[in-house]
Automatic annotation (TrEMBL):
InterPro entries: ARM-like, ARM-type_fold, HSF2BP. One of its GO terms (cellular component) is cytosol. This is HSF2B protein. It comes from the Eukaryota. It comes from Catharus fuscescens. The gene is Hsf2bp_1.
Length: 240
């Protein structure tokens, strides 16, 4: 009887933990969705970054993003875009994108939240092509925004495996993912100091045929950007 009572208590505790987790996820999704909207206001962002919990918030953001990606099933074919978990992580990524869109936000992220930048680059390389496209796009937008800051550009471009990551993302079937990957690539390679440091690796590993294929995409913006990048770097001088 004692064992039965203990098992009953254990089951009840498990149920309570599950309910608490669901509540926290719902609350997190709701609050962060509201904060995503608020973070489009510059004064609101300055107020957030000036608070004592800003660094902790972005540390938790990195951890939450990582946990979300780890929870994805290996054979996942279709993502539940309406799930609370998905809305939660998208809102977090959206907040980071909005913060990075401002000069003060970029400076804060590259100075105080490099763990978050590292996590985003790591996760972009971990997710399968065609999966979590909106999440990928938001992270790519964040990295592009950070790259506008010279310190941010240097940090991102010097991260191990960064160039291979871009080539990996260019093979994603989603046009928006490819578009924002090209924007980040252009931002990085048009800076002379970065190009001087990474130019050899780029030339030796450049997926020329893929970029040429994107320059013929039916997606007008993607096509234009791919052509612009090819012209900027004079890639047609290289042999396929």
């Amino acid at each position: 009887q004692e064992k039965l009572d203990l098992r009953q208590q254990l089951n009840e505790a498990k149920q309570q933990l599950l309910q608490q987790a669901e509540y926290c996820t719902e609350m997190g999704a709701a609050v962060c969705t509201l904060l995503w909207g608020v973070s489009s206001n510059e004064e609101a962002v300055k107020s957030i970054l000036g608070g004592s919990k800003a660094v902790k918030f972005f540390t938790i953001t990195a951890q939450t993003m990582e946990s979300f990606v780890k929870s994805l099933s290996e054979d996942m074919k279709q993502q539940d875009l309406d799930s609370e978990e998905n809305q939660f992580v998208l809102a977090l990524a959206g907040i980071v994108t909005n913060v990075a869109a401002l000069a003060c936000g970029r400076e804060f992220l590259v100075s105080s939240s490099r763990e978050l930048l590292d996590t985003m680059m790591h996760l972009l390389g971990d997710m399968k092509p065609g999966l979590c496209n909106k999440f990928k796009v938001l992270m790519l937008m964040s990295l592009y925004n950070v790259s506008i800051n010279m310190k941010g550009l240097k940090y991102i471009s010097e991260s191990p495996g960064f160039i291979p990551l871009l080539w990996w993302l260019l093979n994603d079937p989603d046009t928006e993912v490819c578009l924002h990957t090209l924007r980040l690539l252009q931002s990085v390679l048009l800076e002379p100091e970065v190009l001087a440091r990474s130019g050899t690796e780029v030339r030796e590993t450049l997926p020329l045929q893929r970029i040429i294929a994107l320059s013929h995409s039916r997606h007008a913006e993607l096509q234009a950007l791919a052509k612009e990048l090819l012209e900027d770097l004079k890639i047609f001088d290289y042999e396929a």
